[in-house]
């Protein structure tokens, strides 16, 4: 079958013709389809039985170009393979925290998966000030297991490199290298920003110390293959309800620095925090929700850190620092000291790499709905200036961080400056 972009009619024919997909429906004549893709890359279809809402699935197809930029920005369709294999691996390592994959069709560059009909993409409910009591526990479990169990701390060198070889993802890595770490901080035709913050944008682009730090973080992103990272783990790549969390859209996945995933998540909570200066005009209501977001960031890091270290202590079967390495008088204490150093560096990477993700949203090709949905440009600028200040400080001051409280202290300081 020659690959072609499917529309709402063609996708129904495709489902009816697939043994593995039609078994999910009791009445093939009652199928209906809705194209819901609002992302930057792909077509996304929901297929339902109109007579039985419990029968549904999602089909996602890669286009041969960057959807947000059009066919002037070609992309390999292989990204759908990375997504499918990552989702299947997630379900091995962290069962129940990603959608089930029903079918991967390499020739058509599509993946069919579980329809999370009882979930919603996390970004908009955060703007609506919803709270998710199980999120910190579940997302920290996901992060700790995926990052630890695909690293040299857990895998043999041969097994880790063999797995890494299946995630060589140069085209989507280049998108992040350009759009997160490079183009927003220089003149580039696709960049877009609120004219109200033009002085701040120009100040970032001419800040030598900041740009040196970003260059160092880009090198880490490009060269440090610590573990399999999602590499786009923002609140638009997570679906939630009050009880359940699922990670979606891992087409950018490759072996990179662990801190990028943890940092992308925390920095998107910073973006949401800032957006409430416009979305929540009542000061008491805003402060209460921003306090919740601070607590959420703290809980995510602290639970991730504890779970990661516990996995390490109980499963130190990789070849990076095997148990035999510590088998000497004082070795147990030395191993504990090494873990502490490792996790401190991971915290600093989380701050710096994550801050690049939030900073680029203020002056690059793509913002986030939390911010872009603020119609009043002066109000939007309040949120954007806050994000620029927090992100810049996380990047510049990261080497001094030894606790999540150091990152949150900056958030609170800059929030106080907004309120003053």
Indicate the topology:
Elements: H1 8-16, H2 19-22, E1 31-35, E2 42-49, E3 52-62, E4 65-66, E5 70-74, H3 79-93, E6 101-105, E7 110-114, E8 120-121, H4 123-127, H5 135-149, H6 157-165, H7 170-179, H8 198-205, H9 208-223, E9 227-229, E10 238-240, E11 245-247, E12 254-256, H10 258-279, H11 283-314, H12 331-360, H13 369-372, H14 377-397, H15 404-419
Antiparallel strand pairs: 1-2, 2-3, 3-7, 4-5, 6-7, 8-10, 9-12, 10-11
Largest sheet: 5 strands, antiparallel
Please give the order of strands in the largest beta sheet. 1-2-3-7-6
Count, helices: 15
The radius of gyration over CA amounts to: 22 Å
User: What is the residue-averaged pLDDT?
Assistant: 95
Q: What percent of the residues sit in helical stretches (DSSP H or I)? A: 40-55%
Order of helices and strands: HHEEEEEHEEEHHHHHHEEEEHHHHHH
In total, the number of strands is: 12
| Overall geometry | globular
Gap from first CA to last CA: 63 Å
Strand content: 5-15%
Explain how this protein is built.
The strands form 4 sheets. Strands 1-2-3-7-6 form a 5-stranded antiparallel beta sheet, sandwiched between helices. The protein has 420 residues and is of the alpha+beta class. The chain contains 15 helices and 12 strands. A hairpin with a 2-residue loop joins strand 2 and strand 3.
Please give a quick description of this structure:
It is built from 15 helices and twelve strands.
Quickly list its features.
alpha+beta, 51% helix, 15 helices, three-stranded antiparallel sheet, 12 strands, 420 residues, 13% strand, five-stranded antiparallel sheet
């Amino acid at each position: 079958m020659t690959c072609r972009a499917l529309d709402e009619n063609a996708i129904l024919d495709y489902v009816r013709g697939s043994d593995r997909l039609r078994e999910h429906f009791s009445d093939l004549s009652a199928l209906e389809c809705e194209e819901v893709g609002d992302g930057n890359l792909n077509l996304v279809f929901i297929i339902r039985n109109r007579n039985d809402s419990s029968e549904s699935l999602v089909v996602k197809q890669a286009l041969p170009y960057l959807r947000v930029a059009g066919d002037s920005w070609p992309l390999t369709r292989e990204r759908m393979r990375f997504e499918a294999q990552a989702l299947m691996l997630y379900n091995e390592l962290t069962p129940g925290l990603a959608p089930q994959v029903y079918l991967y069709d390499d020739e058509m560059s599509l993946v069919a998966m579980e329809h999370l009909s009882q979930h919603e993409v996390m970004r908009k409910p955060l703007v609506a000030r919803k709270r998710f009591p199980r999120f910190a526990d579940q997302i920290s479990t996901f992060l700790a297991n995926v990052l630890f169990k695909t690293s040299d701390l857990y895998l043999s060198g041969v097994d880790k490199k063999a797995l890494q070889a299946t995630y060589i993802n140069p085209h989507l890595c280049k998108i992040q290298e350009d759009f997160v770490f490079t183009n927003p901080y220089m003149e580039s035709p696709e960049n877009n920003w609120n004219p109200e913050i033009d002085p701040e944008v120009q100040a970032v682009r001419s800040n030598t110390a900041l740009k040196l730090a970003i260059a160092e973080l880009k090198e880490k992103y490009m060269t440090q293959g610590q573990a399999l990272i999602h590499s786009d783990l923002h609140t638009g790549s997570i679906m939630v309800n009050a009880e359940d969390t699922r990670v979606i859209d891992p087409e950018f996945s490759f072996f990179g620095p662990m801190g990028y995933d943890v940092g992308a998540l925390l920095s998107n909570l910073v973006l949401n925090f800032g957006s409430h200066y416009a979305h929540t005009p009542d000061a008491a209501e805003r402060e209460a929700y921003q306090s919740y977001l601070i607590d959420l960031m703290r809980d995510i890091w602290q639970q991730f850190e504890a779970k990661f270290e516990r996995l390490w202590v109980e499963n130190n079967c990789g070849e990076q620092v095997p148990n035999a390495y510590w088998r000497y008088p004082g070795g147990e204490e030395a191993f504990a000291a090494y873990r502490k150093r490792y996790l401190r560096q991971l915290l600093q990477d989380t701050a710096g790499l994550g801050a690049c993700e939030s900073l680029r949203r203020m002056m690059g090709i793509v913002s986030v709905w939390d911010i872009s949905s603020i119609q009043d440009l002066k109000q939007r600028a309040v949120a954007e200036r806050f994000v620029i200040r927090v992100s810049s400080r996380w990047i510049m001051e990261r080497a001094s961080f030894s606790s999540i409280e150091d990152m949150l202290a900056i958030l609170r300081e800059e929030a106080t400056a907004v309120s003053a």
